[in-house]
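Dear colleague,

Thank you for sharing your sequence with our group. We've completed the structure prediction you requested, and as agreed, I am returning the results in plain text so they can be pasted directly into your records. Please verify that the sequence below matches your submission; if there's any discrepancy, let me know and we will rerun it promptly.
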Amino acid sequence: MALNSHGDGENRAGSRTRRDLVEDLLEEMTPWNPQERMSAFRSFLSGSLSLIHIHVLTILEVQGRLSMSHLAEELDVSVASATGIVDRMEQRRLVTRRHGDTDRRVVSVYPTRIGSEVFARLRRHRRDKLKKVLGQLSDAELAAFLTGLRAIRRARAAVGPDAKTESPTSGAARTGDREPAS
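Please find the predicted structure tokens below.
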């Protein structure tokens, strides 16, 4: 397919446009039917790890130890709710709380070794599954896929982490509007 100076595909009879290709790639890269989603959450949440626990561990991984009030603010919950979440996470040995050395009223939350290993375990599990999938591709398909993924990484770096996109909770999901059932 020939690209014009704007990078758009020329729309000749039988040719695919750049927009068509991008849409097809998005469809291939983001399928998540309910069965796949349920399976992913079952494996992701195996045992006693909940989505809120994953959220807390992610926040702690990015920001380091946090006071209970700061963690509550990050989670957008009350300190009492954050305390309940941290209580359950402590029971599962995912986090620990420590009182401040200078001000004993300040309680900080830290991930434990087990909590810190959660994402490493998930990464290994994901790699093992992807390795099986990639094993089904030919050498040429693997090379082409690697080229494409590296191009995506360069494009993502060029766009930067601050690129604004619509949040999944904006629009209909946020306002409670629902699409009509088909």
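Summary note from our side: Confidence is low (pLDDT under 50) at residues 1-13, 172-182.

Kind regards,
the structure core
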